[in-house]
Design a protein that fits this description.
single chain, 124 residues, mainly beta, seven-stranded mixed sheet, four-stranded antiparallel sheet, 0% helix, globular
């Protein structure tokens, strides 16, 4: 079954850290662009970070220098290390699969497979 399953969300105080994981199954994980998006109720979904199969990465300006995206193709797993968390980072975080053999991208229409989401709450 082709699916993505996130884990690692939770509650943390401002300045703290969390690491999100996304386990992929049912397809050749290694050749696809993967990304993290986040969404707050009432707002549009926002691209956070992306990585392609050549390990090229892109980040939203709001998380540059604080978040790091990584992938382990042997484990079919995508990661998002989040440091120096701020209350504005509070959201539901989703991992998503983009195109195969393509540049890193945060263009949402390119992402056609989504996980169920994991909640991150940062308190001040």
């Amino acid at each position: 079954q082709v699916q993505l399953a996130e884990s690692g969300g939770g509650s943390v105080q401002a300045g703290g850290s969390l690491r999100l994981s996304c386990r992929a199954s049912g397809y050749d994980f290694s050749v696809y662009v993967m990304a993290w998006f986040r969404q707050v109720p009432g707002k549009e979904r926002e691209g956070v970070a992306t990585i392609n199969n050549g390990l090229s990465k892109m980040y939203a300006d709001s998380v540059k220098g604080r978040f790091t995206i990584a992938r382990d193709n042997a484990k079919n797993t995508l990661y998002l290390q989040m440091n120096s968390l701020k209350p504005d980072d509070t959201a539901t975080y989703y991992c998503a699969r983009g195109r195969s053999w393509s540049p890193a991208s945060l263009n949402e229409p390119e992402f056609t497979l989504w996980g169920q989401g994991t909640q991150v709450t940062v308190s001040s």
